[in-house]
Specification:
Elements: H1 9-40, E1 46-53, E2 56-63, E3 66-71, H2 86-101, H3 110-115
Antiparallel strand pairs: 1-2, 2-3
């Protein structure tokens, strides 16, 4: 059994350069991937705000300063009536906000109003 040993110093320098470039390229690609992931992973800036209406209270839900829901009357009931208090409006608004964050339908039912103790 014979063993050959490469004593050429150029061989080692070439391998070191290749490995360094390969590792640097991997790190750069990984960094670019993280930057893209975090810039594209834009969390919704959903927020809730109460509004005063001529007949009571309502709420607005915004996504990054763009109004997506403006509710000035109590949903589901047949007559057009605003919420009696700011607290009632915010209770319903918070429920809608939770549904939006869970990516479910933001509709409100009469049962939801009853569970939230909203005067109909």
């Amino acid at each position: 059994m014979t063993m050959t040993i490469n004593t050429n110093p150029k061989f080692f320098r070439t391998n070191i350069r290749k490995n360094f470039l390969f590792n640097a390229t991997k790190k750069l690609l990984l960094l670019i991937g993280f930057i893209i992931f975090f810039s594209c992973n834009n969390k919704q800036g959903l927020n809730l705000k109460s509004i005063k209406t001529p007949t009571g209270w309502g709420y607005i839900i915004k996504n990054n300063d763009k109004i997506i829901i403006k509710q000035s009357i109590i949903p589901v009931i047949p007559n057009q009536k605003s919420f009696e208090s700011e607290e009632e409006a915010l209770k319903v608004g918070n429920l809608v906000l939770q549904k939006l964050k869970q990516k479910t339908s933001p509709t409100i039912t009469k049962k939801d109003l009853i569970l939230l103790s909203i005067k109909i």
